[in-house]
Amino acid sequence: MSNAPAEEIPAEEIDLTEANEIIDKYLTLPGNLMPVLQGIQDAYGFVPKPTIDLVAERLNVYPSQIYGVLTFYAQFHLKPRGKFIIRVCVGTACHVQGAERITETFFGRLGIGHAETTEDLRYTFEKVACLGACGMAPLAMVNDDTYGKMTVQKVDEIIETYNARPMK
Amino acid sequence: MVNLTIDGKQVAVEKDATIYDAAKACGIKIPILCHDKKLHPFGGCRMCLVEVEQMKGRLIPSCTTPVTEGMIVQTTTDEIVKARKLVLELLLLKHPIDCPVCDAAGDCDLQNLTYEYKVNMNRFVDEKFNHEIDYENPLIERDMNRCIHCGKCARICDEIVSYGAYTFINRGIEAKMGTEFDGPLNCEFCGSCVSVCPVGALNSRPFKFKARWWALQKTKSVCSYCGTGCQLTLGSKDGKVLTTIYDENQGFHNGQLCTRGRFGYQFVNSDKRLTAPLIRKNGKLQEATWEEALAEVTSRLSAGKSDPASVAALATPRLTNEELFLFEKLFRGTVGTDNIDHSAGFAHEALTKGAVASFGVAASPAEIADVQKSKLLLVVKSDAYETHPVIGFEINLGVKRKGIALRIVSDKKGKLTRLPGAKTTVHAPGSEVALFNALCKSVIDQGLAVEGVAGLDALKAAVADASAEKAGVTAEEIAALAKDFASAEKALIILPIGQGYPGHNAALANAAANLAILTGQVGKEGAGLLIMGEKNNSQGAVDMGIYPKGTGLNAAAILDGCANGNVKTLFVAGENPVVSYPNRKKVEKALENVEFMVVSDLFLTETAAMADVVLPACSFAEKSGTFTSLGRRVQNVRKAIPAVGLAKSDFEILNAISQALGGAGYNNQGEVFTEIAATVPAYKGLTQACLKDEGAVYPVALSAKLVPVAAKAAAPAAGKLALVTGSALYHCGTMSRFGEGPMYVCPDAYAELNVADAAALKIGEGDQVTVTSGTGAVQVAVKVGKRVPQGVVFSPYHFGEGSVNTITDGSEVTYVTVAKK
Ligand code: SF4
Ligand code: SF4
Ligand code: SF4
Ligand code: FES
Ligand code: FES
Which of residues 408-467 of B touch A (CB under 8 A)? Predict the structure, then answer.
């Protein structure tokens, strides 16, 4: 399909400059849809709808197909995500070590459930299957930091720590 | 050819055939669910499994496996039947058994195969799907609980329609056929997806709960909207057309239809239809008997016989050939007037004057089949797709599947512009002739002209000062386009004409023909010029001679005659000049002034409302006859339902009047066709019986000649925008306003502005604006986008409210101001 040159597209609330730059970078490369979507996700933290329309227009792909790709790969997110992604493992080892209580505690403290994001966009919470460190079960991760041998008390410590971190 | 054996039968097929094709060719039925002959093979459902001796040990899908020499195929062993049963059981696992309330029942492949394979119990159990049903539009209901994931809807919407509304979304058990953001369906509503869905997942809402499939009476006929001439099957019951039925074997288009053909039939059953004659008494139209009404009309016309110049008649190119023939015979023959015309004159002059001068015949030298046989298509106006959508589908298919090069010259962009490899030259509004002249000059300058064509010297002289700049494009664009066109093995120009395109007249047809003739792109298959008439029988109207000859007045002059009192009696068969002819005020004044006007129509149109006598006419579904499509294909129209109310066909009306005036009378329309075949040279030897279901393309004998035409320079008016008119997606004339489909896709008039112009004028999407020209002003809503270039406004012409003909006067471009109301 032919690729359209950059044209001005009215932005709905979000600034599309960066998305346009990412598209520019891959515009003429074959198989550019995945890297473009990954680039956009990196830049915006998720893939906002206006960027889907932009990518559709500029790469001449149907928006529906992009949506199909985005929902197929678990790596993509269609809603804003928190600055801190809390993952609690509910794999077999963690489960038997009481992962359920850890997740329940997070739910209670943060007021959000699985795959949800706090309104202030500070936290996103996700239950995940085996994080690959079963020896430290039950396990939690906040972005790239790992917390093993989780307890209810540690949940509070984690929340205090990340509450204190700046948002920007 | 490849030879193979299927179930013991010897078969020889083309080498690109699949096993499924080969079996079908020799009458062996292999069940399919995800396969459709129009679509790329998918191989997703595993219903069509067969056994090939050379590949022992596994079952293979016949719909995706190409044949090879000496293959020995079995299509129904015990093992195959077992496998198919398993496929069905698995499909039925999550599928709700909704048959009692499903509109597809009786037409559902899953239901039929379940019956055929006697799957009366399931070894597995699972929960049924629980997807929300999409009821959010009035045309297509999507119940994904019934979906069997065959992917046909997504494939047809991508491969043929090129809209791409659907895709598989999510994964694994969550996977389903969805749309962008899993939202409601928002598309062109052509219904293609509904037609190919093998189950009841996609349904036509207007047909919902109207009838069971087996109770429908099926009548093969021809669509009555545009000149493409798609064949369709009407499903009717109890005197009403309830739906159109998909038949993949019907017509050049394999059953494909646009929204008008698929969902636009409701005008037939509209409660706004006229059901009794009306006569104006004390200034008001009042119901009358046919005797009264016809007596009034015939006495008026017979008085007119002594002063034929005071009589004029306009006919819509929606009538059948037989009716138009009778119309011509009545007015030109019996009454003796030459004042007859259709579609405001200009809309068909491309054929009657342009094609005649360039090719020696009043028809296109190409036919629709040439679209896919070409190597390069040059489409004039990006919205050829919107005026003739099914030809748009042919273009899509040609470009995507066969790699046909696509070039577009247009005053705005459109869907075709986005096809793979398409190149669009956006020219200044109204400069089509200048552009073709510049192309011809470039062909000559580049030494690409064929030697010795008639009229070359005159053309050379005429285009000597043609230039790209005059058309508002660059010299490089012209040179490249001229070269591509001339050097293509076969190149075809596609030129839509119609009431919305005032510049698409004889001069443009000549200018375009010049390019084709100059480059030798004519007189061979896949090449030439396809002039696409707007209405279902535009070509027939020309063939039957519904245009002024000799000293006769054309439509514009007829209206002038009404205004100045020279024309005293006006007979209008199905035309709606008030909305569709240029300069509405002038038309209204003229019609108010004419002494006696009779209108036959399906509806009390804006024009009929002004008449002295209104005759209720039949729709295409209530009569038989023939239409001739833009590709010169003469096709049978067949009566599906009885006339609504007291309506009579135009054949009956004209026949009665003709007899009352002492003219010829006919027992049925078939007799008229016999006479057509005897007197209209192109139709020589045709019979309605020999037309059968496919129809027949009549031949043309070309004598191609270059006809120089001067380009009129439309001088831009400072500070104003150029208004170009045309067709809105899926409307056609003013009749589609009575069809549910088109009215859902586009219910109201609008003006489309470029984002930059809109910003400068501080106008936003949906704002009401006043568009003002020298002849008047009209209020419409605004669409903002990038399809139209800066400095241009586009507006469709079909609507009674916000009718753009209030502000146009028939010139190529109208300069207007646009201001927020
Ligand atoms: S109705 Fe036509 S445009 Fe809409 S989804 Fe179906 S095939 Fe696509
Ligand atoms: S909706 Fe119909 S056509 Fe589309 S995938 Fe499902 S079953 Fe097939
Ligand atoms: S309106 Fe034209 S393109 Fe659409 S179905 Fe009818 S004949 Fe075909
Ligand atoms: S089960 Fe939790 S880390 Fe493996
Ligand atoms: S019809 Fe062959 S796999 Fe579906």
Answer: 418, 420-422
Determine the residue among B170, B181, B415, B755 to mutate to test chain A binding: the one whose Cβ has the most chain A Cβ atoms within 10 Å.
B181
Yes or no, beta carbons of B169 and A71 under 8 Å apart: yes
How many whole angstroms from B166 Cα to the centroid of ligand 2?
10
Which are the contacts of B259, defined by CB distance < 8 A and separation ≥ 6? B139, B188, B189, B190, B191, B389, B730, B741, B742, B745
Q: Which tens digit of pLDDT belongs to each residue from B493-515?
A: 999 999 889 899 999 999 999 99
pLDDT at B742: 82
> Mean per-residue pLDDT for A46-65?
94
Q: How far, in Å, is the centroid of ligand 3 from the Cα of B727?
A: 13
Q: Is the peptide bond before A138 cis (omega within 30 degrees of 0)?
A: yes
B171 touches chain A (CB under 8 A): yes
- For residue B145, the ligand closest to its alpha carbon is 2
DSSP letter assigned to residue B142: E
Taking CA atoms, what residue in B is nearest to A64? B180
CB nearest to B171's CB, from A1, A52, A72: A72
Cβ of B189 less than 6 Å from ligand 1: yes
B165 with A64: Cβ contact below 8 A: yes
pLDDT classification of B712: cutoffs 50, 70, 90: confident
CB B187 within 8 A of CB B165: yes
Please tell me the distance from the alpha carbon of residue B392 to that of residue B512, in angstroms, as a whole number.
20
pLDDT of residue B345: 84
pTM, 2 dp: 0.92
pLDDT tens digits, residue range B693-711? 999 999 999 999 999 999 9
- Contact status, residue A49 vs residue B148, Cβ threshold 8 Å: no
Query: B418 vs A2: CB contact, 8 Å cut-off?
Result: yes
Q: Say what the ipTM of the complex is.
A: 0.85
The distance of B530 to chain A (nearest Cα, Å) reads: 26
Q: How far is residue B365 from each of residues B243, B265, B362, B526, measured CA to CA in Å? A: 35, 31, 9, 10
Mean pLDDT over B508-531 rounds to 97
Measured between CA atoms, the residue of chain B closest to residue A48 is B181
To the nearest whole Å, the CA of A79 is away from the closest chain B CA by 11
Q: Which helix or strand (DSSP H or E) is residue B178 part of?
A: strand B176-178
Kindly determine whether residue A7 and residue B786, on different chains, have CB atoms separated by under 8 Å: yes
As beta bridge partners, residue B285 has: B280
Q: What is the mean pLDDT of chain B?
A: 95
CB of B737 closer than 6 A to ligand 5? no
Question: If you take atom 8 of ligand 3, which residue's CA is the nearest one?
Answer: B230
- Mean per-residue pLDDT, B595-621: 97
Cα separation, A108 vs A98, whole angstroms: 16
What is the rounded CA–CA span in Å between residue A105 and residue A124?
14
| B658-681 mean pLDDT | 96
Q: Is B388 in the pocket of ligand 3 (CB under 6 A)?
A: yes
Summarised one tens digit per residue, pLDDT across range B17-41 is 999 999 999 999 999 999 999 999 9
Q: Which long-range contacts (CB under 8 A, 24 or more apart) does B27-34 make?
A: B28/B75, B30/B62, B30/B63, B30/B75, B31/B84, B31/B109, B31/B113, B31/B116, B32/B63, B32/B109, B33/B109, B33/B110, B33/B113, B33/B148, B33/B150, B33/B198, B34/B63, B34/B150, B34/B151, B34/B152, B34/B198
- List pLDDT tens digits, range B531-555: 999 999 999 999 999 999 999 999 9
To 10 degrees, the CA torsion angle through B555, B561, B567, B568? 110
Cβ of B170 within 8 Å of Cβ of A72? The answer is yes
Q: What is the mean pLDDT of residues A22-33?
A: 94
Cα separation, B379 vs B375, whole angstroms: 13
Contact at CB, A62 and B420, closer than 8 angstroms: no
| Closest residue, chain B, to A76 (C-alpha) | B170
- What is the number of other CB atoms lying within 10 angstroms of the CB of residue B59? 19
